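Problem 12. The chain below contains 403 residues. Write out its predicted structure in C-alpha cell notation.
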Amino acid sequence: MRSIWIKRSLWALGLGLAIAGIVWFAWPQPIPIDFSVVTKGPMEVTADDEAKTSVREIYTVSAPVSGKVLRTARDAGDPVIADETVVAVMQPVTPAFHDASTHEQLLAAAAAADAAEKLAEAEVRRIAASLDFARKELDRAQELARTDTIAVRTLDKARFDAEANAAALASAKAQLDVRRSERASVAARLIDPSSVPAQSDSACCIQIRSPVAGRVLKIIQESETIVQAGAPLIEIGDPQDLEVVAELLSTDAVQINVGSSVRIDGWGGAPVQGRVSRVDPAGFVKISALGIEEQRVRTWIDFTDPAERWSRLGHDYRVIVHVIIWQADDVLTAPAGAFFRKGNDWAVFAIRDGRARSALVTLGQRNNQTAQIISGLSEGDQVVLHPSDRISEGVAVAEREVQ
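Solution.
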C-alpha cells in the first residue's frame, strides 16, 4: 500500500509540474518596448535646409571689346589691388580665312580700286594743269588791267577760272585719298592669316586691371581664346566679407522674420551663430532630387559670431542652416515618435502599472525630434516610443533589454 501511495504521489507531482509549465509558457509575457519620460525644458522650432556661403560683393571682370584674351597668370586666391593689378590681357584677333569665291571677289575689288586710284591721279594732273594755265591767264589779265587794256569783266572771269580750278584740284586730291583708302581696305581684307606676325607683349592693346581690392575668387576664362565683348573673364571679391544664402521652402519662409536667429553647422567646424538679414519678396520653382517641384525663397543670413570662428569658410561652401521660428525655455515635451493619430486627435500609449494605456493629448509646437504637450500628460509620465501593432489598450509592457 505504501509503494502504491508513493507512486500516486509522484504521478500527481509530475502532473502538477507539467500543468504549471504549460500555464507558465501560455501566460502572456510583457511586450518589450522603448519608452521615454515626459519632461520640461527648453524647446525650439527651426527651418532646416542646406545653404551655401557667398561673398557679399562679387565683381565679374568682362572683356571690354571683342578680341583674343591671353592665358591669365592669376590663380584663384591671388590678392589683387584696385586699379593696379592686371588680371587679363587682350590682343587684336588674327584676320579670318576666306573661301575661293570671296578671294576672287576681293581680287576684283582690288583691281577696281587700283583703276579708280589711277583715274583719280589722272584727274588731279588734269585739273592741276588747268589751274596752272588759269593762274597764268590771271597774271596776264592783271597786267593788262593796270593799263586799262581789257575790260573789268575779263579780269573777273580770269580770277573766277583760277579759283574754280583751285577748288576742283582740292576736290580731286580728296577723291584720290578716298580711292587710296578704298584700295588699302581691300588689301587689308586680302591679308593671309598665316603671314601675320605674332603679337608681342609690347604690341598688346588692352591690359584689364582689377576694379577693386580683394582676391581672385574664380577664373572663368583661363586659357587663351577669342572672346566677344562682354564675355566674363574673372571674378573678384573679399573672402572675409561672407554671408549665407539659403533657399528655403516658401511655407517656412513665411514664418521667418528679419533678425531671426540662425544656427549654422555642417561645414566641418564648430556651429556658429547668424541672423536673417533679408527674405526675398519673390519665390522661384526648384526641382528637388526626387523630381518634385518646390516653391523656394532665397533667405540671406549674416554671421554674428567673430570672424575667427568661421574664417576657414570660403566662397560657395556648403553649410546647414537652422533658422529659429519659435522657442521657449520651460515647455512640457515628449519625443515625436511617441505620438500617433486616433481619429482626428493625437494620442500616446502611457505606461500605467506596467501596462499600456492610451491617452488623448493636445499638441502645440513641433519639430523633427520633439513636440510640445498642451494637455493630456504630466511631467514624469512614461510613454511608449514608436508603438507597433502589438501594443493595444491594457497590454503588459516591459523595457527592452539592450544587448
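Discussion. The longest strand covers residues 318-335. Students who got a different answer should revisit the alignment rule from Section 12.3.
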